[in-house]
């Protein structure tokens, strides 16, 4: 079995005096696509925010490739190799699609781009014809694809997607699903928070269910 990329253990998170997460634990291994499923308000976004350092836990540990990252600042965590696409997808609306991709780019140790733009367009063929369009004028689904592509340009060890199918037309949801299947086939490691279990069918290799801030189910999924 391959090594855990992210390991979350015994996480308690509070907003003010309200406890939101109760001893949450999960781990995502290299090459897995993990679905974190749960209803509205179950704690999916809070779990992702805790991993990203945006909702610091009061108890528990988060490890990235074995190194403790809980307690570090959000930008340090992002630089350490986590790419997060939050519910309110973050793009630069005034810039073109291609400028958005370049802004997210990271150079490898040998000065080479770790994710050349050409490769992004191979994985996201729908983005290439939009390359000179202003990002703020794309449809919601196109913006979602761009937000995911932009985050991939940083070559994250783990890609965290918070409700990537939310508010999108069925055809766009289907395309985002295809794209995530493609990411799985090239060995990317992904954690997806979703209310929509159907979206994750045939897509996720593993599923964890959270309810009222507690993990209630975890399993691998047969294809
Ligand atoms: P959804 O599917 O609606 O996005 P979720 O599973 O992502 O739900 P969270 O956003 O993690 O749920 O919220 C978990 C609980 O924490 C909810 O009861 C929510 O009302 C509460 N909560 C979320 N953000 C805050 C905040 N900033 N301050 C106080 N309570 C919050
Ligand atoms: Mg949420």
TrEMBL record:
Top-level taxon in the UniProt lineage: Bacteria
Keywords attached to this entry: Amino-acid transport, ATP-binding, Nucleotide-binding, Transport
Pfam families assigned: ABC_tran (PF00005)
Family matches, as CDD domains: ABC_TM1139_LivF_branched (cd03224)
GO molecular function: ATP binding; ATP hydrolysis activity; branched-chain amino acid transmembrane transporter activity
Spans through the membrane: none
Ranges for domain ABC transporter: 6-223
Keyword Phosphoprotein applies: no
InterPro entries: AAA+_ATPase, ABC_transporter-like_ATP-bd, ABC_transporter-like_CS, BCAA_Transport_ATP-bd_LivF, P-loop_NTPase
Example GO BP: L-amino acid transport
Function: Involved in beta-(1-->2)glucan export. Transmembrane domains (TMD) form a pore in the inner membrane and the ATP-binding domain (NBD) is responsible for energy generation.
Similarity remark: Belongs to the ABC transporter superfamily.
Protein name: ABC transporter ATP-binding protein
UniProt organism field: Bradyrhizobium centrolobii
């Amino acid at each position: 079995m391959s090594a855990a990329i992210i390991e979350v253990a015994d996480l308690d998170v509070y907003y003010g005096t309200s406890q939101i997460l109760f001893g949450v634990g999960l781990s995502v291994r290299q090459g897995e696509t993990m679905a974190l499923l749960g209803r509205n308000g179950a704690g999916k976004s809070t779990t992702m925010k805790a991993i990203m350092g945006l909702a610091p836990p009061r108890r528990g540990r988060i490890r990235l490739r074995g190194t403790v990252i809980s307690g570090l600042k959000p930008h340090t965590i992002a630089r350490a190799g986590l790419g997060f696409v939050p519910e309110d997808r973050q793009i630069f609306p005034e810039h073109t699609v291609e400028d958005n991709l370049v802004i997210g780019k990271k150079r490898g140790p040998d000065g080479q781009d770790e994710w050349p733009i050409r490769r992004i367009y191979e994985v996201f063929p729908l983005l290439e014809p939009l390359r000179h369009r202003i990002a703020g004028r794309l449809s919601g689904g196109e913006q979602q694809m761009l937000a995911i592509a932009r985050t991939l340009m940083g070559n994250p060890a783990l890609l965290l997607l918070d409700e990537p199918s939310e508010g999108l037309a069925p055809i766009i949801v289907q395309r985002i699903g295809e794209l995530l299947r493609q990411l799985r086939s090239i060995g990317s490691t992904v954690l997806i928070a979703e209310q929509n279990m159907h979206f994750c069918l045939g897509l996720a290799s593993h599923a964890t269910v959270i309810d009222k801030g507690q993990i209630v189910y975890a399993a691998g999924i047969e294809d």
